[in-house]
Amino acid sequence: MARENDCEIIWKAFEQAYVGRDPCDVPPQAYDPLINSVKQHVVCNTMMFWSKTKDTVKAFADNRECLVILEGTLLGFVFDELTWCSKNESKETFTTDCPSWSHCENNPVRSFWNRASVNFAATSCGNVSAMLNGSLEAPFSSTSVFGSVEVKNLDPSKVNSLTVLLVTKETDLTTCDNPSFHALQNILDTKIAYKCRKVPYSKVEGCISDPEIPCSDCL
Ligand code: APR
């Protein structure tokens, strides 16, 4: 039987992106071969984006087939929380002393997430959602990966709607009327319907502790 994903090929495609390169000179396109080396079956209506809600979203999506986050896909899962880089003319991979996220734009880790996020958004279809943090004064940031990469790469011929799920604690004052969502609507293609809904954090917490509760009862 032919294997769908070949780890040797995927690993070589990963290494060619950054090995031997200056760690501030690895653009997102360097990961094109890596992205193309992976075949991933996408299920419409399951994709969830997020911003500033990483721990909550990861715990929530864990063991729930009704939800797919980038960190639950093959590449997202493998490289989540990792740091890597090389050096000019080196054959080595280092996992320490690599540039931080904002030290320079074209660093191996940031470029990987930007490229993987383009792919995740561009392959999304149907009704998609984004879990944003209702404890923040401005839950949407146009400079975040979600705001600067993913929203812009949703394909209006495949995506019907984007629903913001604003995870809110009892004392939080932020609502769906938050001005930051105007910026989101301005970036979003007009052919994609925009929706926003508050989701109580207590409800999400309950669903995290019991993965048997269906998505429809959680969000
Ligand atoms: N400094 C350091 N780390 C950062 C920074 C930054 N300025 N920006 C992003 N990161 C890294 C961190 O590891 C952080 O946990 O990216 C992660 C997500 O950052 P957020 O600002 O919370 O969210 P966002 O930038 O919108 O990215 C999340 O991209 O990973 C994809 O599909 C995923 O929808 C999700 C989105």
Could you explain how this protein is built, in words?
With 219 residues, this protein is α/β, with parallel strands linked by helices. Helix content is 32%, strand content 14%. The protein contains 8 helices and 4 strands. The chain has a 4-stranded parallel sheet. Strand 3 (159-168), helix 7 and strand 4 (193-200) form a beta-alpha-beta unit. Helix 3 (54-61) crosses helix 8. The longest helix is centred in the middle third of the chain and has 15 residues, at 108-122. It is globular. The model has no long low-confidence stretch (mean pLDDT 96). The site of adenosine-5-diphosphoribose has 15 residues, from strand 1, helix 5 and helix 6. Adenosine-5-diphosphoribose (APR) binds next to strand 1, helix 5 and helix 6.
Describe the SSE topology:
Elements: H1 7-18, H2 32-36, E1 48-51, H3 54-61, H4 74-79, H5 108-122, E2 126-133, H6 145-150, E3 159-168, H7 180-187, E4 193-200, H8 201-209
Helix pairs in contact: 3-8
Give the SSE order as H and E letters: HHEHHHEHEHEH
Low-confidence region ranges: none
Largest sheet report: 4 strands, parallel
Radius of gyration: 18 Å
Class by alpha and beta content: alpha/beta
- Principal-axes geometry comes out as globular
Bound compounds: adenosine-5-diphosphoribose
DSSP E strands, number: 4
Query: Alpha-carbon distance between the termini?
Result: 40 Å
Strand numbers in spatial order across the main sheet: 1-2-3-4
The average pLDDT value, as a whole number, equals 96
Number of helices: 8
User: Hey, roughly how much beta strand do the residues contain?
Assistant: 5-15%
Classify the helix fraction into a percent range: 25-40%
